[in-house]
Design a protein that fits this description.
The protein is an alpha/beta fold. The chain contains six helices and seven strands; from the N terminus they run ααββββαβαββαα. The chain has a single domain, classed as Rossmann fold (3-Layer(aba) Sandwich), CATH 3.40.50. Helix 3 runs parallel beside helix 4. The chain is globular, with a radius of gyration of 16 Å. The N terminus is likely disordered.
């Protein structure tokens, strides 16, 4: 996949989304980010580009297990999203520590989620994967992508909804509930139009 095509799959989360997960879901890590698309309040983030080590990034999110509490917002490429979901499930299954990865992924077709590979995989592991909600497309305002400067081919306006999925182990669930038993209700209040 060439760089221009790959960049066209990138979207940058609005800061209020990352702030909500930090506040209510103990998130301190951001998987599959970049120096131009990460929340500097998080002490740890992972990038796929080795050169980003200069900016404090860890590289290759798949080289180690997901652990602790993190958000994962990969590029919108079907295979990458499926690999990230699979890695999060594997990590939660084998981790001996509290683990919860909040996957933030587009939902192309909400009427027929069976055609969505990452959603199909999550349904196979209901004890580890919980669909927390969907943010409608008209309520999702992505931040501007600073590295997209192709005037001839502007980034398309999004029309998809946004799926939030928790992939966790029992220790992660217990830890979240012990920290604040209403964490999920409080998180939902941050996205009032979510369903």
């Amino acid at each position: 996949m060439n760089k221009k095509t790959k960049d066209s799959f990138a979207r940058i989360l609005p800061s209020h989304i990352t702030a909500a997960f930090e506040k209510w879901a103990l998130v301190t890590k951001e998987k599959m980010a970049s120096p131009l698309d990460y929340d500097p309040k998080f002490p740890h983030y992972w990038s796929e580009h080795p050169r980003d080590k200069v900016f404090g990034a860890n590289t290759n999110a798949f080289s180690s297990r997901f652990s602790g509490f993190s958000i994962c917002h990969p590029i919108y490429h079907e295979n990458t999203m499926l690999l990230a979901t699979r890695h999060a499930i594997y990590s939660a299954a084998v981790s001996t520590e509290e683990t919860a990865t909040f996957m933030l992924l587009p939902s192309w077709n909400t009427r027929d989620m069976t055609t969505n590979p990452y959603a199909s995989l999550c349904r196979k592991y209901p004890h580890m994967c919980k669909f927390l909600g969907t943010i409608p497309s008209n309520q999702l305002q992505y931040a501007k992508v600073p590295f997209w400067n192709n005037i001839q081919i502007p980034l398309s306006k999004h029309s998809w909804e946004f799926q939030v999925i928790a992939i966790w182990n029992s220790k992660g669930r217990v830890c979240l509930n012990a920290h604040n038993r209403d964490w999920l209700k409080e998180l939902a209040k941050e996205f009032p139009e979510a369903k």
